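Holo prediction — 6-aminohexanamide.
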Amino acid sequence: MKILHSTPAGDNFYMPAEFEPHSGCIMIWPERSDSWQFGGYAARKAFVQIAEAIAKSEEVTVCAGYSQYNNARQALPPHIRVIEMSSDDAWARDVAPTFVINKDGELRGINWQFNAWGGLVDGLYFPWDKDNAMANKLCDLYRADVYDAGNFVLEGGSVHVDGQGTALVTENCLLSAGRNPSMSKSEIEEYLKAYLNVSKVIWLKCGIYNDETNEHVDNICAFVKPGHVVLAWTDDTDDPQYEMSKSCHDILCGSTDAKGRKITVHKLYQPKPVCITEKECEGLDNMNFEPTRIPGERLAASYVNFYISNGAVVMPGFAKPDADDEFNASYRNSDAAARRTLSELFPDREIIQIYTRDILIGGGNIHCITQQIPTPCPNKSNIPSDTAGNQS
Ligand code: KQY
């Protein structure tokens, strides 16, 4: 594996959209006891279901730490590869490489700087050095040369692309004080253009209410095909999410993508607020003598946090399976409505909904715990080069 100091755009590599073909998916086994209830015991059931759902149509590799390796190996079916790799937590979207491809069928990775979503300013844990080392290790595993993005701090969950020259981001995240405080918005945009090889960045202001990542875009808005996005939505004007989603809606409806198409926005209705209970908080260890969650705290639930595999859309559900009570009834309805919306938008893919409350308690959802490895398709080019190829 070579470490590269050029840029993907300069070398005619680009990040394809998630809905394009994958050769695999990376996940990380959860075990951190201040992130996950009962040291990960509760979340692992959902992680296994997600890995199995993705593995129906692409290879899945799960990285597990030394002490959980045997447990992960036993809990996951044999066709899912488990490798031992150290990490600080289990957010593959943010710590695994962002992969880029070119039209000669080559795959490379990008190693962004990772600082646990805000470093010493408002990061979520310290230290984060094991997480930060993962992108290079994974590129080595996949025999992909890796772009060193230097000191530029970015997480995979903070960008979405259409593979045709457009990126979506939020200002609250990318301009946060804990990431690249010495850079201006336009300098940050130049980095995105150079590394993702896009020519147009659509800046939403914000994301999902109370999202501790400073509002990653992948929890509020995602491309479903070129020119089309889903946006987390509520009609409840008393919900703080309303103004946040409305602001994104206004920006998107007034935007065109890199190819000049108007963006079509599909509303994906939110579940009713999901709040952590006292009992759930009891399952979490403290961090530095402080609780990581407070009973009643609203979690950043969103149906947009799905993963597009080769054959499926693997999406979150918030109704407890087999629970017949009133509490779950509303979630059952919103789960079904979200499933319907996504099945209309992805007619050729199976929609697999998985109960992910135990992952949400950790602070994210299915998209946050997965990272796709795109299949380079020789001779097929969406490279916006042709518009943005020379930024190095
Ligand atoms: O991408 C994400 N949503 C990661 C969330 C990290 C939360 C740490 N408790």
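READOUT: Residues 79 and 201 are 38 Å apart (CA to CA).
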